[in-house]
UniProtKB/TrEMBL annotation:
<keyword id="KW-0711">Selenium</keyword>
<keyword id="KW-0963">Cytoplasm</keyword>
<comment type="function">
    <text>Converts seryl-tRNA(Sec) to selenocysteinyl-tRNA(Sec) required for selenoprotein biosynthesis.</text>
</comment>
<dbReference type="Pfam" id="PF03841">
    <property type="entry name" value="SelA"/>
</dbReference>
<dbReference type="GO" id="GO:0001717">
    <property type="term" value="P:conversion of seryl-tRNAsec to selenocys-tRNAsec"/>
</dbReference>
<keyword id="KW-0663">Pyridoxal phosphate</keyword>
<dbReference type="GO" id="GO:0001514">
    <property type="term" value="P:selenocysteine incorporation"/>
</dbReference>
<dbReference type="GO" id="GO:0005737">
    <property type="term" value="C:cytoplasm"/>
</dbReference>
<keyword id="KW-0648">Protein biosynthesis</keyword>
<dbReference type="InterPro" id="IPR015421">
    <property type="entry name" value="PyrdxlP-dep_Trfase_major"/>
</dbReference>
<dbReference type="InterPro" id="IPR004534">
    <property type="entry name" value="SelA_trans"/>
</dbReference>
<keyword id="KW-0808">Transferase</keyword>
<dbReference type="InterPro" id="IPR015424">
    <property type="entry name" value="PyrdxlP-dep_Trfase"/>
</dbReference>
<dbReference type="GO" id="GO:0004125">
    <property type="term" value="F:L-seryl-tRNA(Sec) selenium transferase activity"/>
</dbReference>
<comment type="similarity">
    <text>Belongs to the SelA family.</text>
</comment>
<protein>
    <recommendedName>
        <fullName>L-seryl-tRNA(Sec) selenium transferase</fullName>
        <ecNumber>2.9.1.1</ecNumber>
    </recommendedName>
</protein>
<dbReference type="InterPro" id="IPR018319">
    <property type="entry name" value="SelA-like"/>
</dbReference>
Length: 476
């Protein structure tokens, strides 16, 4: 191995060859860009030689430098290509956190494109002809939909929680039930964010039971807030009790210095329970019950972009808008455009134009018909896969409605010669990648979140994969 390594030509010699000149010319690179890529290529090949995995020509042969430049070209393609790609979600999880959560609707995309591709009135008052504020654009829709007096948007719900605690409870006490000291994704804990904000956590009750008297017994002059945290990503059952929103709102009203804030997490504007799906509280109901402030996510049950939405009493929201953190946590024009169009769909009762709402409430029979169509199309194309159709379960996802199971149909795909994990890998590495489930040496395709256009792409991906398998073609 050491003998082979010693035979690798020095970098400066490689740069003086005609092969290098062709490499930078074909790839439209500067001399320095080409030099760095060649250095990376040689370093990589050294590693392969040491590991015994180098399959190219030996360093002392004429073709070695050509192999170096070819490998450098592969590195260039990886370095200078985008890493955020469109994928097809055929996993059956609607708000798949790893796949970007809520999909944005067609009209919303058009609005984002219009705003992003031109100058706009983000902070310009057209009527007055002077500087305006970005807070106004979606605020009117949020207020109309929720009954709040005022609203604002920050970049996610964690930011909303942090801003509220920092601006309204710093160095003051905030009362929270022990059963609501939750942790969400990424090790984000209510207790930790409260500590970072400067608010003082006062835990009341026990893990499974908290009563109104527990809150009453801890309100002092230094109390700034009673905070209720919705248990959106887990469920407690059995010997449990919690205090309802209206009771906590009523208690806070007995004190001039105590606010009632409810962190709703997922945030539903649509009543999914009318479809027999979960028991998620509506934002409008919580505000009607007397909450001074609520916060919730934009990219979960609401079905919009990633955002943290704060709604409630005007006096409290105005203080948040003036706080220094409001500028740190503010959202850009594209987020506002996406959110206001999503909210407009709710106002116009066009929830079917919001993909998340449409997918969650999509009838099982509709998915059944689409699944039958896919199986029939694949059989018509004479694929060698073993295909079966069965009943199954989809999930809402995104740390939302953890107990809800959405009835669906699944297309299972097997092959006599290729294991399921290989089919699973090859599908996700297609362009676009198809993300499926894998269980008991079968992959499952759930079409709940798959559009007609994506349906056709899944069909072609499976046909192409079948061709690779039948012709023993290598997969790259």
């Amino acid at each position: 191995m050491k003998e082979l390594l010693r035979k690798i030509p020095p970098i400066h010699e490689a740069l003086e060859t005609g092969g290098f000149n062709r490499f930078i010319e074909i790839n439209d690179l500067s001399f320095n860009q080409g030099k760095e890529l060649v250095k990376e290529s040689v370093t990589s090949i050294r590693k392969y030689i040491l590991e015994g995995t180098w399959e190219g020509p030996p360093p002392d042969t004429q073709g070695f430098l050509d192999a170096v430049f070819m490998h450098a070209e592969k590195i260039k393609k990886q370095k200078y290509s985008i890493s955020l790609h469109r994928v097809i979600n055929a996993s059956g999880t609607v708000l798949h956190t790893n796949l970007g959560r809520a999909r944005i609707g067609a009209e919303t995309i058009e609005h984002i494109s219009s705003v992003a591709g031109s100058y706009n009135n983000l902070e310009y008052d057209i009527d007055e002809g002077k500087r305006g504020t970005r807070h106004t654009h979606a605020e009117k829709f949020i207020c109309e939909l929720t009954g709040a007096e005022a609203a604002m948007i920050v970049n996610n719900n964690a930011a909303a929680v942090f801003l509220i605690l920092s601006a309204l409870a710093k160095n003051k006490e905030v009362i929270v039930s022990r059963g609501e000291l939750v942790e969400i994704g990424g090790s984000f804990r209510i207790s930790s964010i409260m500590e970072e904000s400067g608010a003082k956590l006062v835990e009341v009750g026990t893990t499974n039971k908290t009563h109104l008297k527990d809150y009453q017994g801890h309100i002092v002059e230094d109390t700034a807030m009673i905070m209720k945290v919705h248990q959106s990503n887990f469920v407690m059952k059995g010997f449990t009790s919690a205090v309802e929103s209206e009771e906590l709102a009523g208690l806070s009203k007995e004190y001039d210095h105590v606010l009632y804030y409810e962190d709703l997490g997922s945030g539903a504007l649509f009543d999914f329970s009318q479809y027999g799906i979960g028991e998620e509280p509506l934002i409008s109901d919580v505000i009607e019950k007397g909450a001074d402030l609520v916060s919730f996510s934009g990219d979960k049950l609401l079905g919009g972009p990633q955002a943290g939405i704060i709604a409630g009493k005007k006096e409290a929201v105005d203080l948040l808008k003036k706080h220094q953190l409001a500028r740190v946590l503010r959202v850009d024009k594209m987020t506002i455009a996406a959110l206001e169009m999503t909210l407009l769909h709710y106002l116009k009762k066009e929830e079917d134009k919001i993909p998340a709402v449409f997918s969650i409430t999509r009838p099982k029979e509709d998915i059944h018909q689409q699944s039958i169509k896919l199986v029939d199309q694949l059989k018509h194309r004479n694929v060698s896969f073993i295909l079966e159709l069965s009943e199954g379960i989809s999930k809402v996802g995104g740390g939302t409605m953890p107990e809800v199971e959405l009835d669906t149909y699944l297309v299972s795909v097997q092959h006599n010669r290729v294991p399921a994990n290989e089919i699973h890998k090859r599908l996700r590495k297609q362009d676009p990648g198809v993300i499926t489930r894998i269980h008991q040496d079968r992959i499952f395709i759930d079409l709940r979140t798959v559009t007609p256009e994506e349906h056709d792409e899944i069909l072609e991906a499976l046909v192409e994969l079948n061709g690779q398998i039948e012709n023993d073609l290598p997969f790259s």
